[in-house]
Amino acid sequence: MSVRPTPDQVLLLAPDKAAATAALAASTPGSWSAAGYDDQAVWGHYIATSAEPYAVAVDLSDDVAGPAFRCNCPSRKIPCKHAIGLLLLHANGGLVVARRLPFAAEWMQRRARKSDAASAVDAEVATPTADGGAEHDAADGALGGGARAPRPEMGAIDPNRQKRQMERSARMRAGLIELDRWLADRIRVGIAAPELAAPATWERVAARLVDAQCGGLGNRVKRVAAKVGQHARWHEDVLEEMALLHVLAVGAQHSSTLPTNLADGVHVATGLTVAKDDVLASVPSTARWRVMGESRTREDRITVQRTWLASAGDDGSSPTWAMLLSFGAVGNDVTSDYEIGSAFTADVHWYPGGIALRALVGRVHSEPVPSSSWLPGQSIAEAMSACGWALAAEPWLERYPMCVRVAPAPLGNGNWLVGDDTGSMVVAAGFTRMAELVCVSAGRPAVVMGEWSTEGFLPLTVESHGQVVVL
Asked: Which of 76, 163, 179, 386 has the fewest CB atoms in 10 Å of its CB?
């Protein structure tokens, strides 16, 4: 008879942190059908987005080698998030004693037959020892379609950690459900309803999301509120943003069914934070990084600074971008660790997400020094193609860096654009240094680095005769 594991022991079976996080979301009773357990195994059907549910089973009968897992999902991780989620549900007392499902009964019988056959072979090849016993190598690995996980060493862990994770997950899920219900009500009533014009309406929604520990969505709601009444066609912008809020609210509730990178991106956009130590423990990208530009925005009472680094791209290919975030309270300037126009060689570690964009600088191999080398600048078509792929991976992306070779041109009514032979981009209305850009470029093509957003292109730096001018 097997002993029911504790939640902490189950989480130690996860192959990595991402799988453990996804397993927490997959451990809710509503995600399973016909789940049950007996003295030797647990099993169930995981309700996924695919046409058929995943058949999941865990063999708990081997107290020496540890549990074995069986799941027909396409994941290459062993054990997968579905198997860990099912076992976590069992550890929390969420399963009932039942008769084995046919697939689980057949799998367990097949494992038992192979185990008996292996024992017979081991008995034949066993060699006597000095004390009259026998020694042999125990077979390990995949048996009958299941994979055997290494038995974890139970080290010192925080007994309250899993409880806190479950409590936060429940709070976030309640906040996401409430947000999605509110969005549905707004669409039902119509976005021209008078209450949407009241800032207090949006502030209440944002405050509830912050209380539910969905700070990322709370900040996004505040940014949507700023679009109300911004121009004559503000309804279109607000409707688009509300659609993205709906996507994130639904996606976060079903992140266990998403690919790992996409699920990570949803978690970050929702408000889950990742510890710096965990990021710095990941495999870095070592390269020569150029400091391309900086931008700052205000979010409530916090100043957010984005420092953009870029590597490679000298042959005309798309550069690799890295975004460093810094935060400061209002009234305190955010300090810059790297001077714009300098270059240095360092290890850069990426935060999890649908795309590799936000990063941390790890080990620095050479100190930043002024650099006369600058990116050659892409065409608008090439830069927009890279931006399109990024948006396909993370549709809620609000900013994306570009380094393009363009010329400024007036659009009329005080508006400007930058363009080349392949296309053009409208300069963001909030850009106040158009005169400097025109003077530096003299109206001719120049290499300009900036941020794309739904508001337009925001120039940050321009290269002129080997010198970088900060706009």
From this structure: 76
Q: Residue 346 to residues 328, 353, 358, 361, 403: CA-CA distances in angstroms?
A: 25, 21, 15, 7, 21
Contacts 24+ apart (CB under 8 A), 326-335: 327/302, 327/303, 328/302, 328/303, 329/301, 329/302, 329/303, 330/298, 330/301, 330/302, 330/303, 332/303, 333/303, 334/296, 334/303, 334/305
Question: DSSP per residue over 355-368, as a string?
Answer: SS-BEEEEEEEEEE
Sign of torsion over alpha carbons 232, 233, 239, 242: negative
Architecture, CATH, for domain 276-370: Beta Barrel (2.40)
Q: Two tokens at 44?
A: 């169930």
Tokens found for residue 115: 């185990």
- For the chain, the structural domain boundaries read 7-124, 162-270, 276-370, 380-470
**How far is residue 364 from each of residues 277, 290, 345, 346, 371, measured CA to CA in Å?**
16, 13, 6, 4, 16
CB atoms within 10 A of CB 249: 23
Q: Which two tokens stand for residue 104?
A: 């689980």
> H or E stretch including 467?
strand 467-470
d(CA 207, CA 175): 10
With the CA atoms of 190, 191, 192 and 197 taken in that order, what torsion angle do they form, in degrees rounded to the nearest 10?
140
Alpha-carbon distance 215 to 70, whole Å?
37
Model confidence over 178-217: pLDDT tens digits?
A: 999 999 988 888 888 888 888 888 888 888 888 888 888 8
At 380-400, the pLDDT tens digits run 999 999 999 999 888 888 899
CA torsion angle for 239, 240, 243, 247 (degrees, to 10)? -160
Please give the DSSP secondary-structure letter assigned to residue 331. T
Non-local (6+) Cβ contacts of 188 within 8 A are none
